[in-house]
Amino acid sequence: MVFDTLVAEFPFLLRGLWIGIQLLAALLALGFVLGITLAVMSVYGHWSLRLFAVVFERIFRGIPEIVLLLLFFYGIGELLPLSPFVAAVLALGLRSTAYQAQIFRGSIQSVAGGEVMAARALGMSRLGAIWHIVLPQALRRSIGPWTNEYSAELKATSLAYVIGVVELTRQASYIVSNLQGNTLTVFAVVAAMYFVVNRLGNAGLYALERRLTIPGFEGRGAES
Amino acid sequence: MSDNPILSVRDVRKTYGGVEVLKGVSFDLERGQSKIVIGPSGTGKSTLLRCINLLSPPDSGNVVLDGVTVEERGINQIRAQIGFVFQEFNLFTHLRVLDNVRLAQRNVLGRSKQEATRRAMEELERVGLSDKLEAYPAELSGGQKQRASIARALAMDPKLILFDEPTSALDPELTGEVVQVMKDLANAGMTMLVVSHEMGFARAAADEVIFMEGGVIVEQGPPSTLFTCPEHARTSQFLRMISHEHQEA
């Protein structure tokens, strides 16, 4: 009987999952663009930009996700009304920015300085060298550590239910209250859904990493 | 000295961490001339090259390229006219050989893709790498990497090329192919300033040898005179030392 209900309710879970994936994509994209910017600033920028990058990272890595969600939705929402979804994208996306900036900064610093010097010696601008030489190499090296960030943020989307984003976890708790119990079954299904999306995303990222490995270099694929 | 050298270096000084590495270096380079700079390590030879295109700006003195003073303003356009070949090659790891040679042509000189490809293929053929267009740097031998980096410099149609110990990072059996390319270039009339201890290149292709020690030019002259009867005792001492090294190698 519980399975009949589950089948009937499954579309709601899928809808919740879809909202969760949209939230994930939006917050990762925000974190990607701002994270690269912050990383470039913290490696190549004027000291004031480097200071800004450090302070930003410290703040957003030092506050729990739930507190950030509440802060953005109820706190900032008082001055500037935000939908729960937008508040969640900002709160989790800015936090992801701080973590992604760490990843990109490390990989930017691992690119051989001699190549930048060669680009400058050819007459390329600093920004041109960063864009054409540093970032293409740094981004390749970021994919591995970035899979961690993908997994962490996918799981963090479930927290958005506290500010009323109707994502997968929220849908599940609706169903549980409708069914009067069967908590274990419903959350087991939800857990499996998160697990599958996590595995699929990671598999995709590893495939991307293999595809972008530079021939002649030891990559993840070269070990086998 | 003519009235119109392609490169004129005047009283260049440079201090690193309290140590004066260059203590006032002056010389001229004529169009089509190739000069080789020799001297003990730590003498400021590589620093001198980096001062010329401001990769490491001099503290004082000046550098004039073809009548234009080299300064920070507009430096990218000036650097595009000065080729630079590094000891460590510094090819762009993530780009195929062809793209290594095309990138700055397009990005700095604004050449079309066709034009950049044409020039890249010409120069890669000149250095004997026509069959490696699609290879990545990590797939090349050291000698091939250095030849690719020479092609990358040549494709910019520079007024002169600076070589910073181009064979020092190579296994002995690979230096020959790079030296041969450099000899061919010198004979074809390319203006070159080479920091190297390759006596083969110095004897066969250098118009003049500059001996540097302790941040100054001790003496300079055509290889025939400088190698056979140097004026300074330090020069002959140094020449004896490196010729011993070469015999042992």
From TrEMBL, chain A:
Give the location in the cell.
Cell inner membrane; Cell membrane
- Record keyword Membrane present: yes
Its membrane topology, per UniProt? Multi-pass membrane protein
> GO MF annotations for this entry?
transmembrane transporter activity
Q: Does the keyword Cytoplasm apply?
A: no
- Name a single GO cellular component: ATP-binding cassette (ABC) transporter complex
Q: Name one Pfam family in it.
A: BPD_transp_1
| Ranges annotated as spanning the membrane | 20-45, 66-94
Q: What is its main location?
A: membrane
What is the similarity comment for this entry?
Answer: Belongs to the binding-protein-dependent transport system permease family. HisMQ subfamily.
Recorded protein name is ABC transmembrane type-1 domain-containing protein
From TrEMBL, chain B:
Q: How does it sit in the membrane?
A: Peripheral membrane protein
Q: Where is the protein found, in the record's own terms?
A: Cell inner membrane
Record's SUPFAM superfamilies? P-loop containing nucleoside triphosphate hydrolases
Pfam families given for it? Answer: ABC_tran (PF00005)
Q: Can the keyword ATP-binding be found in this entry's annotation?
A: yes
Keywords for the protein's UniProt record, in alphabetical order? Amino-acid transport, ATP-binding, Cell membrane, Membrane, Nucleotide-binding, Transport
An annotated GO cellular component: plasma membrane
Q: Point out the signal peptide segment.
A: none
InterPro entries attached here?
AAA+_ATPase, ABC_ATPase_HisP-typ, ABC_transporter-like_ATP-bd, ABC_transporter-like_CS, MetN_ABC_transporter-like, P-loop_NTPase
DNA-binding as UniProt keyword? no
Domain ABC transporter, by residue range, is: 7-239
Q: Name one GO molecular function term.
A: ATP binding
**Record-stated family:** Belongs to the ABC transporter superfamily.
Q: Know the name of this protein?
A: ABC transporter domain-containing protein
